[in-house]
Fold:
Amino acid sequence: MDLNQLTAHELLDKIKSGETSAKNILASLYSRIQRIEPKLKAYARVKADNKPDFIPQESGLLSGLPITVKDNICTKGLNTECCSKILGNFRPPYDATVINKLKTAGASIFPLKANMDEFAFGSSTENSFFGPTHNPWNLECVPGGSSGGSAAAVAGDEAIWALGSDTGGSIRQPASFCGVVGLKPTYGRVSRFGLIAFASSLDQIGPITKDVEDAAILTRIISGYDPNDSTSVNQDVPDYTASLGKDIKGLKIGIPKEYFVEGMDPEVKSGIEEAINKLKSLGAVSNPVSLPHTQYAVPVYYIIATAEASSNLARFDGVQYGYRAKSESLIDMYKKTRAEGFGEEAKRRIILGTFALSHGYYDAYYLRALKVRTLIKNDFDAVFRDFDCIVTPTSPTSAFKIGERTADPLKMYLSDIYTISVNLAGIPAISIPCGFTKEGLPIGLQIMAKPFNEEMLFKVAHAFEQNTEWHKIKPRI
Amino acid sequence: MKYQTVIGLEVHLQLNTKTKAFCGCPVDFGQTPNSGVCPVCLGLPGSLPVYNREALNSAIKLALAFSCQIQEHTKFDRKNYFYPDLPKNYQISQFDLPLSRNGYLDIASEGKTKRIGITRVHLEEDAGKLIHETTSSLVDFNRTGVPLLEIVSEPDLSSPQEAFDYLTSLKNIIEYLDVSDCDMEKGSLRCDANISLRPEGVKELGVKTELKNMNSFKGVKDALTFEVGRQTELLEAGSAMSQETRLWDAQKNETVSMRSKEGAKDYRYFPDPDLTVFIIDQEMVSKTKAQLPELPQEKMQRFIRDYGLSEYDAKILVSSKKDAEFAEECIRKYPGKDKKIMVNWLIGPLLSEANSRKLNLCQLNVNKDELISLIEFVENQSVSHLSAKLVLTQMIDSAKGAALIIKENNMLQISDTAELERIIDQAILENEKSVSSFKAGKTNALMFLVGQVMKKSAGKANPKVVGDLIKRRLT
Amino acid sequence: MAIDKETVKYVAHLARIELEPEELEKLSRQLHDILGFIDKLSALDVQQVKPASHILPISNVLREDKPHTCLTPEQALENAPGKSGNFFSVPKIIE
Structure:
């Protein structure tokens, strides 16, 4: 296998034994990118003659191992544009806290940023200003979104591992569509300082990796209290790799009945059922549970997330950075900059969010959504009193074709149904590959646990992974 | 028709913390534009706020000083609007659960004491500064993020003078708390006013006018005075009035209407998800209350009680915290039984010196021991009161001690009767007319004769002794 | 709940986004559908429920009043689309 095809932990072993170095790993990645990036388009702002002269610092725990970062995480001196025209050429004068932690651990920040839906608004990466990323398993299909670039790069071996962000499923759903591992940590586990905000009460940064062990290593590095983030929690970060290789005998798994309904792809349904059987064969015990407010999750999300986004994105106005439209007066500058700088989905969400907060509608929409959010959280709290984890499909379907859902925003929103509640409740969840459809598209299994119990996720996910072969299959590009 | 004036004041106060509200940029940032900024106060994408502990402490202190009720669960809200001096296009402020409510400030105005309600005191952050040029506007973000307190009064003020007195009292207390420089000229205290008129006897409030751009307490009073006149004229003419904002023009001495904005603003307030709730429990309140310094009102009462000052004199002394402290130290140190003697010197000659030099008492740099020494010279009749005042001036100008100045200027009073008799002889000889007047019963003549002796002795004769000697001589 | 074009226009103004007539038309239709879907929330009885403004039970997060190193004006202005000396420059504000 080429270096770029290996996992981070395999490469770290090779670096330690002197077999290879970060420099060689980078060269392997560049060569892969040279060959398949024109088909995949997992990265933003790739130049034709792309051969960035980047020399990794080969020190620390990670010895210079490169990591691919989503375009909405601030990297000092390196363009961070959220794949939007309005943030064109923005070079942050500071690193996000997670980037600082990675650098301290000896990682090199890969000089190309991963493609994404503009401002993380989307479930397919079709809303990127730079055009869509293609799914490595079928180039006519979407890789999922909004961290589609990160997931496709990892799945296509254009990255060893990557960071994504997840507000309503943006790590897990693309991980599921691309057959890789994606984790959204508990809200407050990972600092948001330097993550360009979409919905402040829902966003989290998390790992997208080739296997569960890599996810455990990466999650540990990026987690922890940050005094610069008022919403980050001061709680010790365990060594998540200690949760690997454990058996799951007697583990109580809840299967929510509301997640197995009409409209679900029959192949996804049977894939998940098989996966659950696999878990049972490893000693877990499963029982049906109920999350009665599941049907309200999507509307609640689309009020809260868009309301917060409408306020978070008000700063993109052409004054300090990014795109500025030609204009005669200030008000003109605001209106034209934002009309020309934002894509369609961004405008739609900002207007919806502004409406939900506006005078006369605040109580009926925003306030009401906050209350239903409490009900959704209570549903999970109740289940976790008796169950160790909850298992569901990550997405009702496998990857759909590029262009298939762009005409109907509502249809696109509804595809988030399985991932969204997790963000609303603030709990951690992981998606791991658990099979393929007849057409060869990956199916993802989602495991959820109670707050700050990422150890449970790693334990169950690793047990499943090590007793199956799904994670070893690679796409042929 | 008689109209009643209704005024409410909104004060924005910059706290004197070392750093800004939500980031560690220093509040004292110097002259270079955009040099005291960071990703947080610039509102750069990805930045997050964390509130300043000292700012919260100062805010609670101030709220308690105004007898406000502290909100046990308080939070920040986002006030959303677009303006170039607001980097995030929202201001972090407080909406429905402000830090404190329902306080008051007692003011003495036009001979009466009046209680002015304080609706709320809440936390927010300052915006940047804009400079308008011909075709563009320039933005300096140094000031964004400076911690502010907004202090809103009830519409309990009934005249421009009361408004002025309210601001003076407010500033006095804030000064004692030492939570702000409260200097309107430097911008650390800003004031907007709301004024309306209603016919006497009517309960409903009239149409409200908002006044902005006043740069001093006097400016506030003048602007309000102008408005009372302008609005009275309009009402008497039966003209319709609409709610508007007007700017005070201090040069022209008038208010000018700002072009009317598009109706009521929709700020779309919602709880800021980047900041946690703040729980201010009884323990925290008690602890902060214990940290409050003695406030002006309390000190004034104490001065009246302990030093026998009149309310008038006590009020003068407490109007500046440092002056009150200086005065109290002088009074404490004065060894004589009658403290009133020291008090009179403070209220009299010292205050006079301070006023003429446009300084505070404490800025005169008078050495307290030297002052006591000077007073003792007067009390034991070694120096006349008149001379002593001259000595005081020199003490301030030269920083020399009292004894030295008295010696250098040969100011010791002549109390020796023999020497005085000689000068009196001369005066009597030269002023036959006055002597006759006095013998005829005109007491003024005695004053004149004493004055002549004083002149001949270059002010050094002890006037009381002279008076007694002359009286004995001539009767 | 129905959302008409006038409301969308007003909201777009609040959000400082200029919409072309076709955009306004399309957006109004789409938002109307989305809000129709969102309306299922009105079926729930939430009178006794507390709003989840913050999902974490943390409070009183504060920082010490200690100064840090600031950015230089060059750093602050690096990305500015319009600048003049050490100032950011924007088109004239017409009240």
